[in-house]
Specification:
The longest helix is centred in the C-terminal third of the chain and has 19 residues, at about 270-290. A hairpin with a 2-residue loop joins strand 1 (about 5-15) and strand 2. This protein has one domain (about 5-290): 3-Layer(aba) Sandwich (Rossmann fold). Helix 6 packs across helix 7 and helix 8 packs parallel to helix 10 (about 240-250). It has helices spanning about 65-70, 70-80, 115-120, 125-140, 155-165, 190-195, 200-210, 210-215, 235, 240-250, 270-290; strands at about 5-15, 15-25, 35-40, 50-55, 80-85, 145-155, 175-180, 225-230, 260-265. It is of the alpha/beta class. The protein has 11 helices and 9 strands. Strands 1-2-3-5-4-6-7-8-9 form a 9-stranded mixed sheet, with helices on both faces. Helix content is about 35%, strand content about 20%. It is an enzyme of class 3 (hydrolase). Belongs to the esterase D family. Pfam families: Esterase. It comes from Collybia nuda.
């Protein structure tokens, strides 16, 4: 996969490390410009470091997690790099992609679209799992991509769980999620996205992009942590369905040491919730990334 070189857009020293924003011309996204943030902890000045990928939710960009997640301090002390991709292609110019907040721009759902209308540009799965690691390697940035884990929020929680559970190469050592869309073929957000992006609609989605279905037939050991808030409006509306994911995991004989789903009393869907449990998630992944 050929890409133009990374261009550094900004850099900020923080927690003795560096948060850098890059852009490049993305082949996976049909030649569009893509941006991402990368946090390099101070340990990266002397050694290659493991990386934790953060996938943000609907309407977000590469900036939300970096600016509001409260991840950087803990990542600095643990010696872990953080990669913050965008949530969709930008500027594809496809008719209708900007009509709704929960589909199109800002709502790529971390899949590879198969409907012809979207297939050229909406390939966030390839962008995240293949393209970004390659362009970062090619730039000589000191990250050890043999040690990767992934986490995310809401739509990004869906992405983290599905990319982890569908990875035939065992790309990620662990996965975690804040308020993930856990059973998207059973909720309005998922149905809208999958019927819009996928030629095979819900059947194609069930086989590849629904964490509840994936965990039910997964055969390998897993390391998964999920947090959701009981005060979350989208949980109450039936968009998240974490109980479905938990039941499927238990039915597949994954115990609480392999799949832990925690309900947090009174917390909502916001970054106040995420930042409260950010340290838990970084430390969870450190157990697997630093070994």
């Amino acid at each position: 996969m050929e890409n133009t070189a990374l261009e550094k857009m900004s850099s900020n020293k923080t927690f003795e490390g560096e948060l850098i924003k890059y852009k490049f011309k993305s082949t996976a996204l049909g030649g569009l410009e893509a941006q991402f943030n990368l946090y390099l902890p101070p340990k990266s000045q002397n050694d290659k470091v493991p990386v934790l990928v953060y996938l943000a939710g609907l309407t977000c960009t590469e900036d939300n997690g970096a600016q509001k997640g409260s991840f950087l301090s803990v990542a600095s002390t643990q010696g872990i790099a953080l990669l913050f991709p965008d949530t969709s292609p930008r500027g594809a110019g496809i008719e209708g992609e900007d009509d709704d907040w929960d589909f199109g721009t800002g709502a790529g759902f971390y899949l590879n679209a198969t409907k012809p209308k979207y297939a050229k540009h909406y390939n966030m799965l390839t962008h995240i799992t293949v393209e970004l690691p390659q362009v970062i390697k090619d730039a000589g940035i000191p990250i050890d991509f043999t040690r990767q884990s992934i986490f995310g929020h809401s739509m990004g929680g869906h992405g983290a769980l599905t990319l982890y559970l569908s990875s035939s190469t065992k790309q990620y050592r662990s996965a975690s999620a804040f308020a993930p869309i856990s059973n998207p073929t059973k909720c309005p957000w998922g149905k809208k996205a999958f019927t819009g992006y996928l030629q095979g609609g819900m059947e194609e989605a069930q086989n590849q992009y629904d964490a509840t279905h994936l965990i039910a037939r997964f055969k390998e050991p897993v390391h998964i942590l999920v947090d959701y808030g009981t005060g979350d409006q989208f949980y109450k509306q039936g968009q998240l369905l974490p109980e479905n994911f938990l039941k499927a995991a238990r039915d597949a004989n994954y115990d609480e040491f392999q799949v832990r789903v925690r309900s947090q009393e009174g917390y909502d869907h916001s970054y106040y919730f995420i930042s409260t449990f950010a340290s838990d998630h970084i430390h969870f992944h450190a157990n697997f990334l630093k070994s």
